[in-house]
Amino acid sequence: MFYEPKNGHGLPHNPFNAVVTPRPIGWIATRGADGQDNLAPYSFFNAVAYEPPQVMFASTSAKPDRGDTKDSVANIRDTGVFAVNIVEYAARDMMNQTAGPWDRATDEFALASIQKAACSTIDCPRVADAPATLECKLTQVVQLPGAANLVVFGEVTGVHLRDDCLVNGMFDVTRFKPLTRLGYKDYSVIDEAFSLERPGS
């Protein structure tokens, strides 16, 4: 089949997210200017540059108590920092609990019984036992077409790697099995990897 998104797809559910898969999940931790901590997952997330290391995530909806966006972006605009926690398969239920439309006063760390720790280079909490956490300073927020489509870019200023995920000096994702987002209500897990030599390398 072929369809133009502007004309609709005619299917029971939108296939777009099911096409662009699997997507890594950025479990974004922030602290508001009022000191309120927040934790929420975003599957429009990825690394975008090496030098300096930079990442992005996109927020595509808004909450009535936050105006044009959600808690994560609102906090980042106020403070200029955020932490990206990598989600392991074992944390899938806790991650899902933090995805709810909770009030801005809700601390999702407490709600989902997630242990928090302090970041080292920024004033922000992080998931204490995450396989990895990227501490980030905001570089820019870009408004995309669509009322609530905001992309947050940040420079990575600190990296936490869980010791059990390091094998022979390399970060081994099969040690923690990254959770990935598919389409609809579906997720997947990475539990094996293989290597390819790039031509000319």
UniProtKB/TrEMBL annotation:
Its EC number is 1.5.1.-. It comes from the Bacteria. It is an enzyme of class 1 (oxidoreductase). Gene3D superfamilies: Electron Transport, Fmn-binding Protein, Chain A (2.30.110.10). Residues 18-173 form the Flavin reductase like domain. Coiled coil: none annotated. The keyword Oxidoreductase applies. GO terms for molecular function: oxidoreductase activity. Pfam families: Flavin_Reduct. Keywords: Oxidoreductase. InterPro entries: Flavin_Rdtase-like_dom, Split_barrel_FMN-bd. PANTHER family: BLR2425 PROTEIN, FLAVIN REDUCTASE LIKE DOMAIN-CONTAINING PROTEIN. This is Flavin reductase family protein.
